[in-house]
Amino acid sequence: MQIENQIQTLNWHPTRRWSMRDVTTIQKIILHQELGESSVEQVNAYHIGTNHISQRGCPHFCYHYGIEKDGSIIMANDLCHIVWHCKGQNSIAVGIMLVGNFNGPGYNLGTEGPTDEQMESVDFLVNHLLDELKLNRQNVYGHYHFGKPACPGYKVQRWIEDFRDDPEIKSWKEDTKKSVKDIQSRLKKLGYYDGKIDGIIGVKSQAAIRAFQKSRGLQIDGILGPNTLKALFNNQ
């Protein structure tokens, strides 16, 4: 599988340019969906013109990578570029956007999800970046972790949650027969969660996990590590 470098091929804003960073500061990979039905080139044209991010236009495509419907992986910005894809995370994160409008939590009722080719490319690209940046699976997020529930949609969210499940946590869940829905139900019963029991660790679930961790004197990171899981189901 190849990554097509279009950093110079795609049009740039006439005057604006990204701020720069050292790639060693990167801590996260964040997946997004387009929330539309176009192409990387068309999204780039939108971004460099007047848009919802900046009336002055953005320097370039607002993600580091775009994945087309046929699975083509486009590199649109260098990893040292601080692009504007996720508020509060831009300086330390890599942004990946999948072309398309996918069903997701909230009001987004798009298509069922990305193509099989796109999902294969997501797996390839994320693993490639983890290796290059010396990160681990828990450094992979969706935009829903940072306040955008519908992004990148149900199908990619499920992939992210499965991908982030490290062997120790996965083994604990299997041994105790606990699923994400069980976890959400337990948090709801304890009064920490008021969202849907949908099996997806989204914004509300993460907030509930953090509140529970704080109440038990655990590390407040919103991650379902072994200590959090054991405390959650202790004396059930």
Level-2 CATH architecture of the largest domain: 3-Layer(aba) Sandwich
CATH H-tier superfamily of the largest domain = Peptidoglycan recognition protein-like
Q: Taking Cα atoms only, what radius of gyration do you get, to the nearest Å?
A: 19 Å
Q: Please write the string of helix (H) and strand (E) elements.
A: EEEHEEEEHEHHHHH
Number of domain units: 2
Give the number of DSSP strands: 8
Give the low-pLDDT segments: none
Distance between the termini: 47 Å
Helix content: 25-40%
Largest sheet: 6 strands, mixed
- Continuous helix count: 7
The name of the CATH topology of the largest domain is: Lysozyme-like
Strand content: 5-15%
In spatial order, strands of the major sheet run: 1-5-4-7-3-8
Mean pLDDT: 89
Q: Which structural category do the helix and sheet elements fall into?
A: alpha/beta
CATH class type of the largest domain: Alpha Beta
Structure description:
The protein is an alpha/beta fold. It folds into two domains: 162 residues, Lysozyme-like (3-Layer(aba) Sandwich), CATH 3.40.80; 65 residues, Muramoyl-pentapeptide Carboxypeptidase, domain 1 (Orthogonal Bundle). It contains seven helices and eight strands, in the order βββαββββαβααααα. It has a six-stranded mixed β-sheet with strand order 1-5-4-7-3-8, with helices on one face. It has a two-stranded antiparallel ribbon with strand order 2-6. The longest helix has 18 residues. The mean pLDDT is 89.
